Amino acid sequence: MGRHLWFDELFTYYIAGEPGVARLMDAIIRVDMNPPLSYFVVRWIQDLFGRSEIVTRLPFAVGFWAGSLGVFFSLRRRIGACWSAAAILLFWSSPYIRNASQARPYGLLLAFFALTLISFDHAGRVGRTRRSVFGIAAGNVGMMLSHVFAPLSILPFCVAEATRCIVRRRVDWPVWAALLLPVTISLAYLPAIRMYQHNYYPPAYQASGFSLLVFILRLVVFEMHRPLAIGSVLALVALPFSAKRAVGIRTGCPGLVWAAAFMAVPGILMMLLMRTGGAFGDRYCLTTALCFYVLVVAIMARVAGFRRSSALAAALTFAFFALRQPYLADDAPPDAAELSMAGQQLPLVAASGLTFMEMDRYNELQLQSRLYYLTDRNAAIRYAHATIFENMPLVKQVFPIHSNVSPYSTFVASHRHFWVITRPAYLEDWLVRKLRDDGARLSLAASALGPTKDFLFYEVQWDGEQVR
Q1: Which residue positions in the chain have pLDDT lower than 50?
Q2: How many other CB atoms are found less than 10 A from the CB of residue 362?
Q3: What angle (nearest 5°) sits at the alpha carbon of residue 296, between those of residues 290 and 302?
Q4: For position 201, what pLDDT does the model report?
């Protein structure tokens, strides 16, 4: 079966497995905000090869590698094959490589982005063909059908085309049509976006100036300082080992403007999300991260005079760090053996919706029958300022979840002795704090083994007090 699917991937797995297209589309509208393309692709692959973890992730892995290859070919004519390889390997040595092994739409987004990039490059040349305009349109449609934030990956191409029009003093209407018409697909997302604006997210997850700073530091410092520093030093050390080799094509003004626009995308996204209190994730700026690493390597190449020896030194360094990336290292749900400590008869409550869904998927029916997730919107807002799991009753209606979802008040009124699995100070969890304030006695009983997200088991009892 392969590595377990985590919470977000389970949405892909379950939605793709819905019987019939109408049910699939209904599930997307009701419980997820992503466009439908990734679910239909997974559904098609599962029909061919079966419903397993590996098969579910396969389209996104292929898309990620194809997108990386497309960017390599687009970049090769500007800085040469060796430096282009170094740029892609630097991207692969970043944490963004983990999107290659997850059943979420970022791999497809990258593939269609590469198609737009290659086609846009060809559309700017003398004697371009209709295929380049069609490629721009197809790439943009693919991005729009893959992720709700795709317009931000299209925006830099529009800025670059506007610059190109100014330089050439003429408007290329077919290119503008290929760029802008696909963006109208976003109008279909507006109802889902309005629905998700009612969610609350912990302040630490919300978009802000600080989260923008953290995003920038992650690109350069937190996880990338070693490959960047070592690769740069070795590239300089390798300078004397090959003659200078000129590269023919300069970037030009539209290319520089395109890169600058991509660097502005995270700030634009932050401002949009700050208006609604939305959460920001680094993965939303996947294409910006790729552009940034390409720019870093392009600067290295220019400083090194495009020498192949320096390119090889940098590429080998980045390849080493890429191979050390934990592609598949995600938290796993506690297995049945670990959960045997929680008693065979007492209910087991998962404090986190993440753990609840993963335990439901990967544990036996005997455990599922006594596994619960509790909902209380007011408590979730009060203690965690997070309501993203309060739609779990709807999720249970849509997905084949065998475990139980219950309102907090209903559950504690009829269960005065149960177990809770949680982790310390997890921002989205409110249950343990609510239980303590309501007068329950919590006794830490044990810790689970292995790479689990939640690993603390509490035994919860009341001594007859009235639960508020």
Answers
A1: 1, 248, 329, 465-468
A2: 17
A3: 135
A4: 85
- Buried-state track 92-103, b at ≥16 Cβ within 10 A, e below 16: bbbbbbbbbbbb
Encoded amino acid at 300, one letter:
M
Strand, coil or helix: what is 21? helix
As a whole number of angstroms, the distance between CA 41 and CA 37 comes to 6
In the prediction, which pLDDT does 77 show? 85
Tokens of 233: 């030093």
Q: Is 94 left (phi over 0), alpha (psi -120 to 50) or beta?
A: beta
What pLDDT is recorded for position 331?
63
Helix (H) or strand (E) holding 218: none
- Count the Cβ atoms, other than its own, within 10 Å of residue 450: 12
Helices 173-180 and 151-168 pack at an angle, to 10 degrees, of 170
Task: Determine the distance from the C-alpha atom of residue 226 to the mean position of all C-alpha atoms in its chain, rounded to a whole number.
Answer: 24
- How far apart CA 359 and CA 62 sit, in angstroms, is 28
SS3 state of residue 373:
strand
Position 289, amino acid: A
Single-letter amino acid code for the residue at 360: D
- Which residues 6+ apart lie within 8 Å of 26 measured at CB? 18, 398
DSSP 168-216: HTS--HHHHHHHHGGGGGGGGGHHHHHHHTT----GGGB--HHHHHHHH
CA 53 to chain centre: 17
Q: Is the CB of residue 412 less than 8 Å from the CB of residue 385?
A: no
Q: Which of 467, 417, 461 is nearest to 441 (CA)?
A: 461
**Which pLDDT score is estimated for 251?**
61
pLDDT of residue 65: 95
Non-local CB neighbours of 449 within 8 Å, separated by 6+ positions: 338, 455
C-alpha distance from residue 280 to each of 99, 180, 209, 360, 391 (Å): 16, 25, 11, 28, 20
All residues at 6 or more sequence positions from 457 whose CB lies less than 8 Å from its CB, including other chains: 341, 342, 419, 420, 421, 444, 445, 446, 447, 448
Give residue-wise pLDDT tens across range 244-290: 665 545 566 677 888 899 999 999 999 988 887 788 989 999 999 99
Q: Which conformational region is residue 169 in: left (phi greater than 0), alpha (psi within -120 to 50 degrees), or beta? A: left
Q: Which two tokens stand for residue 383?
A: 């203690």
Residue 110: the pLDDT is: 97
Closest CA to 361 of 313, 395, 409, 388: 395
Residue 121: C-alpha distances to residues 47, 125, 146, 387 (Å): 36, 7, 22, 44
What backbone torsions phi and psi does residue 458 show, to the nearest 5 degrees? Answer: -110, 135
